[in-house]
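Lab notebook: predicted structure, single chain.

Context: the supervisor wants predicted structures on file for every construct in the current expression panel, including those that have not yet been purified. This is the next one on the list. No modifications to the sequence; it matches the entry in the shared construct table.
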Amino acid sequence: MKVESGWGWTLLLLAILFELAGTTSLKLSDGFTKLWPSVWMFVLYGCSFTLLNFALTYINVGVAYAIWSGVGIVLITLIGFVLFKESINLIQVLWVSLIVLGVIGLKMSSNVH
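Prediction complete. Output recorded below exactly as produced.
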């Protein structure tokens, strides 16, 4: 079992932020028809996966990936709503909330020895 550390969580947080920026660039690339958002998407995703890779030296893969993807889903949903004026309904909020609960549950259960 890996020993979780503050450094691992910092790397994971940075990986999430780069993933959010990469996904935002993906949307802005308009199907790869816009050069710079397309280039930034590759750079930002590369940074995200690199940071996630380093975070995995401190955090178990299941926990790290669940948090990386779950938090990313929640935040990119909010970014889509606020920045891109995408619609969201109550049922979608419910399903995203279940993702949040799943991530919290996985994190809490990883602390049980």
